[in-house]
Amino acid sequence: MSTIEQLMQEDLNRKNSIVVRATLVSVLLAACVDFFMKKDLALVLSILIGGGIGWGILAILHHFKKALAFIPYIASFLVSAVIFVIMENSISPSAFFLVYFILATAAIYMNGPVLWMGSALGLIVITMFIQLHHSVLPFETKNYVTIYLLHILVTILLSFQLKLAKQLTRQMYKLHSETQEMMAGNQKRQAALEENTAVISDMISSVNHTSQENYHGALEMTHSIADLSAGVQVQADSASAISHSLENTTAMGAEISRLSTELLKDAGAAQSASKRGNDLLTQLEIEITTFSFELTTISQKMFSLSIDVEEAVDFVKVIQGIAEQTNLLALNASIEAARAGESGRGFAVVAQEVRKLADLTNQTASQISTNLGKVKKETDETNSSISAAADNMKANLTLSRESKEAFLAIFEVINALKDKLTSYHQHIQLIETSSREIETAVNDFSSVVQEASASLEELAATIHSQTEQYSHLVHSLEDADTSMHKLIQLYRE
Predict the structure, then answer these.
(1) Which GO terms describe its cellular component (predicted)?
(2) What does the alpha-carbon distance between residue 267 and residue 458 come to, in Å, rounded to a whole number?
(3) Nearby residues of 199 by Cβ (< 8 Å), 6 or more positions away
(4) What letter does residue 342 receive in the DSSP assignment?
(5) What's the CA gap between 337 and 330, in Å, rounded?
(6) CA atoms of 493 and 491, how far apart (whole Å)
(7) How far apart are the first and last CA of the chain?
(8) CA 13 vs CA 10, 20, 115, 176, 419: distances in Å
(9) What letters, b where the CB count within 10 A reaches 16 and e where it falls short, cover 348-384?
(10) pLDDT per position in the chain (493 positions), as tens?
(11) CA atoms within 13 A on the CB side of 395
């Protein structure tokens, strides 16, 4: 926006431009008048040269913006001189009207001193023209007074118009100044508003970026929790399968314990029978028939014992298979516990203990199987010996002592077998107890895993709800950011 001084300077330049053109027109008009009135060529050239020099000075000052304040006064003098020359070359009553061209030229500037100087120059031109040509002019004194009075009245009217124009100009300048102040204030407010809008836009962009990161983080968390929930569900299923397998193992352990109890009872019975056989051998000479019957009974029991031992060997093999399956399940449980991380550490410890017990059970079962093989072998041999002794006893009673010694050996073997069966029974009971404890621990772990799965599902639902809220927030912030950018662009335009 231009200042008042700049506007005044531009107005002065425009007025000077008009006056320079008017001066040129007056010079050309004077030369044309003299030319058409067939004046001397020297006079016409003098007017052109003199007027051209004066006009050239005005044009140079106006073009280079030098002494702009003096151009109105110089132009008034130059126009007055040209008008006087024209009047001198066309002496007539109408020549007095040319004086008003001087007033019109001075009135262009709407400046009091210039107007009054132009009026004074007009009076001087009128006076000089009357003094030089009053004898030629067909006027009386009252007519000259009228000419002076009319010139003064026109000057006064122009001064009144100048005063009104100045008041209007002052009001316009005042309004212009107020407008400038208002626009400056608006520019300051616009700049402040644009700056604050830019700050708010940056803040919205930052919040939008943060919200998008939170939104993507929530999505990733949702996927992670879904994967974790699936893993926990797999662990829960595995725990249920392990619990079911342990139930079967516990039932089989109880059955093995029952069979070992019966086997221990049979071993005790065999021990009693062998002692009884020893007693019968002592009375062999007296009760050969009874002893033969008892010997047959012993042979039958030994055969039953052999069958029981074979069954025990089969049971031991079953125990070995169970121990291997338990070891494999414990290994799988350790792997699943490792996948579970910190929450599966306790279960990993339990799985490790289960593996140890399974290995111990396998080793014990292998030892029992070996011992039972030996027992079966010795039992078969003893049974063969008893059968041979029974056959030979009828033929030769002299072998009774040897048979007695054989029964003593049988007693010792059965006694050792009983001790081993007792130890085997204790191990079986220990396996049964451990299986029940493992089953309880696995059930507890399964409950914990199910609770964790339910908690993860609730957490996943909560995060999904927050993700949707973040999504709505991101869209709202994007709309707000777009609106702020449009507002900033509107301010800049």
Answers:
(1) membrane
(2) 61
(3) none
(4) G
(5) 10
(6) 5
(7) 16
(8) 5, 10, 18, 19, 137
(9) bebbeebbebbeebbebbeebbebbeebbebbeebbe
(10) 456 676 667 777 787 788 778 778 877 877 787 777 776 777 677 777 777 787 888 788 877 888 778 888 888 888 888 888 878 877 878 888 888 888 888 888 778 888 899 899 999 999 998 898 888 888 888 888 898 998 899 888 888 877 877 777 777 767 767 777 777 776 776 666 667 666 776 766 776 677 677 667 667 767 766 676 666 566 667 667 666 766 776 677 677 777 767 766 776 776 676 677 667 767 766 777 776 777 678 777 777 877 877 787 777 778 878 878 887 877 787 787 777 777 767 767 777 787 788 788 878 878 887 887 787 777 777 777 777 766 776 776 676 667 667 767 776 777 776 677 677 667 777 776 776 777 677 677 667 667 766 776 777 677 777 777 767 766 776 777 787 677 667 656 6
(11) 6
The structural domains of the chain, with segments of one domain joined by +, span: 4-139, 214-485
Write the DSSP string, 50-102: HHHHHHHHHHHHHHTT-SGGGHHHHHHHHHHHHHHHHHHHS-SGGGGGGHHHH
The secondary element (H helix, E strand) that includes residue 337 is: helix 288-340
Give the count of alpha carbons within 13 A of 449, CB side only.
Answer: 27
User: Domain 214-485, what architecture?
Assistant: Orthogonal Bundle (1.10)
Chain centre to alpha carbon of residue 421: 71
Query: What tokens were used for 174?
Result: 């005042």
**Contact residues for 403 (Cβ-Cβ < 8 A; gap 6+):** 281, 284, 389, 393
3-class secondary structure per residue, 242-299: HHHHHHHHHHHHHHHHHHHHHHHHHHHHHHHHHHHHHHHHHCCCCCHHHHHHHHHHHH
Q: Which of 73, 100, 75, 72 is nearest to 86 (CA)?
A: 100
Burial of 94 (0-12, 13-18, 19+ CB in 10 A): exposed
Look up residue 343 and give its DSSP letter.
G
C-alpha of 172 from chain center: 58
- Report DSSP letters for 320-331, one per residue: HHHHHHHHHHHH
288: tokens are 């050969």
